[in-house]
Design brief:
single chain, alpha+beta, four-stranded antiparallel sheet, 8 helices
């Protein structure tokens, strides 16, 4: 469990390098429906606060990568010396002073920030302030209904967000400026459990069903015919000693006498 916790923490702390996808990139995906740009946000949307997540950089990312390799290298002093989430954050997470500096810098853009994890901040502000802080323009996009899927609207920046220069060493990225819904399949098929055609039993025919019934009837008849003999055998075994076991006086005795006292 500690190993899994260490790996997950390391991956989460480095996730900021991959955030900040623009709407233009999303509309270019073959699997995503085409989204029409409806222009800047409507007045009502511009007066609604938005909360996003800011990811923070590790203070010693190179050392963290070396430790991760050593943990899985047999013979290394750190081999299988796993860290808890708290130990990892205290050793490689950003310092309290760095986080405080980021919060102060964001306040200059009239954005409030609250620390949610060791390497993330919840940043809240009006759309205009977020646009100014991250050098983006938020637009409204619309996806038309198709097949049995209803249409929907979402907001997204028209370009990649950029971190203010004064906090670029501590802050890594921002997530949540784009709120386009992500569809997930309700049912997934595990490829490891796909049906092997060679092991599929062919459909039963009338003749095969008849043969199975005949075999079942034959087994039932044999079971009924041997049942009385099994009961008689059990009765004899309880009343008499076994021949050749030494209680009848000789191993060659063909008939047995009742045990004394039976």
């Amino acid at each position: 469990m500690r190993r899994i916790t260490t790996v997950l923490c390391f991956l989460i702390f480095l996730a900021g390098a991959l955030v900040g996808t623009s709407a233009g990139q999303q509309t270019g995906k073959a699997s995503a429906p085409v989204a029409m740009d409806r222009g800047p946000l409507a007045p009502r949307e511009r007066h609604t606060p938005i909360s996003v997540t800011m990811t923070l950089s590790l203070s010693k990312s190179d050392e963290a990568e070396k430790l991760l390799q050593a943990i899985y290298t047999p013979g290394a002093p750190e081999y299988h010396q796993f860290l808890t989430a708290e130990q990892f954050a205290a050793r490689f997470g950003p310092s309290d002073a760095d986080v405080a500096g980021v919060i102060v810098a964001l306040a200059k853009y009239r954005l409030s920030a609250q620390r949610t994890t060791a390497t993330t901040l919840k940043v809240t502000g009006m759309p205009a302030d977020l646009e100014r802080a991250f050098s983006v323009s938020l637009h409204s996009y619309e996806v038309a209904a198709r097949d049995n899927q209803p249409g929907y609207r979402f907001r997204a920046p028209t370009s990649h967000p950029s971190i203010p220069g004064e906090i670029s060493k501590t802050a890594k990225g921002v997530i949540g400026l784009d709120n386009r819904p992500v569809a997930h399949p309700l049912h997934k098929t595990n490829p490891l459990y796909k049906t092997n055609p060679s092991t599929v039993r062919p459909a039963s025919t009338g003749a095969s069903r008849s043969r199975r019934r005949d075999r079942a009837a034959s087994c039932a008849v044999r079971s009924r015919s041997t049942r009385p003999r099994r009961r008689a055998s059990r009765a004899r075994t309880g009343a008499f000693a076994r021949c050749g076991a030494g209680s009848c006086g000789s191993a060659r005795t063909s008939t047995c006498r009742p045990r004394a006292g039976s």
